[in-house]
């Protein structure tokens, strides 16, 4: 019996891969222009890193991690998100000893045991950036503006940017108490997970995916009304920066990135075009995470952007990404004699930097032309007996239909000239 891919995973087939390559290139170019350097970290880490780095009251750590023991009995977890590993690496290699802030970007596969549905997979991919070592709102602005530039640059215009401030340890204490007082009379009705969150991290209750818990939190006190002066000032500053950049946003006090180390800024880019899983990009500030993971007290801010959701959104918005062109040439040959010359010519075209193909199925010359059409070849270079004798190939420009004889060693030059004229 044939074996299928595991539930919640998706193959990226050749017919789709060019779309991935396109967004990957765009993201890399944009990050380079904005001074973010690439970092690559392993697909798996010690489980403890995520328990501490993502937070043990988060959905991810509570129920979504792919965790296993390796042969030496260590607890290992497949990366469910990017920040924890990047922070671990930043500390381990003392990158903070270099020029600060550190601006990093990555593209990663992530693994979460979730209920698969549209826009929600078990193996998925993210683009991400982090800025370490900048505590002012310019860094938050840069991170948000980068996501905005990227999404708009792809032609997406109606994503909504929602921002919130979730305070800092100074102001969160008072809020925590107010929230617990609000939830106390409803405690018995909360789901089991939220009951444990009630003590450990009541803000997580606001982010519960259960509709019942969600309904119970209606009218709950909002962090935004409890911000200390410093957090309020920062939030105002961020909004002034976004306004100066002409980036539209709405303040959404319901956004919770309820980990203990998340502080101040939280944001999401949300769309209505891809169904219930509408958050394409989510991020925020985490001023205590690096310290929490054993590093110096260095603040951080960043985002994760789901690539599958991004591509789904582009498709649903009817935005076609440029399909790569077919090869510059198909080298067609007639008869066994011509085969050697054709293979040589094929190789010389590739050496000259052109893309070139040859038929490997023994097609007739008529079918080689059909094949050229199907793969979108812009030229067909024909070699038969006559061409072998004269040392000149027949070069047909498939766009114009013109045909000419060109000495073998000049074919690459001829095709290159046609290419330039067409550009
Ligand atoms: P959600 O509320 O949709 O579960 P999240 O808060 O768990 O999202 P983050 O951890 O912030 O998501 O991850 C950043 C981005 O990664 C999300 O905005 C989304 O685009 C993408 N993402 C998260 N989980 C998945 C998944 N299971 N499948 C595909 N993409 C995902
Ligand atoms: Mg989630």
Could you walk me through the main structural features you see in this protein, from its secondary elements to its overall organization?
- The protein is an alpha+beta fold and 423 residues long.
- It has two domains: 14-168 and 228-316, 2-Layer Sandwich (BirA Bifunctional Protein, domain 2); 329-422, Anticodon-binding domain (Rossmann fold), CATH 3.40.50.800.
- It has helices at 14-33, 47-53, 59-64, 83-92, 137-153, 169-183, 192-200, 211-216, 229-245, 289-292, 307-316, 336-351, 365-375, 385-390, 411-422; strands at residues 37-38, 44-46, 67-69, 75-78, 102-111, 123-132, 160-165, 250-251, 263-270, 279-285, 300-306, 329-333, 356-358, 379-383, 392-397, 403-407.
- The strands form three sheets. It has an eight-stranded mixed sheet with strand order 1-5-6-11-10-9-7-8.
- Bound molecules: adenosine-5'-triphosphate and magnesium ion (MG).
Brief descriptors of the model:
423 residues, alpha+beta, BirA Bifunctional Protein, domain 2, Rossmann fold, eight-stranded mixed beta sheet, five-stranded mixed beta sheet, 16 strands, 39% helix, elongated, binds adenosine-5'-triphosphate, binds magnesium ion
Major beta sheet summary: 8 strands, mixed
Number of helices: 15
Low-confidence stretches: none
According to CATH, the homologous superfamily of the largest domain is Bira Bifunctional Protein, Domain 2
Say what the CATH topology of the largest domain is: BirA Bifunctional Protein, domain 2
Number of strands: 16
CATH C-level class of the largest domain: Alpha Beta
Instruction: Report the radius of gyration as a whole number of Å.
Output: 28 Å
Neighbour order of strands in the largest sheet: 1-5-6-11-10-9-7-8
- Number of folding domains? 2
General shape:
elongated
What ligands are attached or bound here?
A: adenosine-5'-triphosphate, magnesium ion
Oligomer: single chain
Mean pLDDT: 95
Helix content: 25-40%
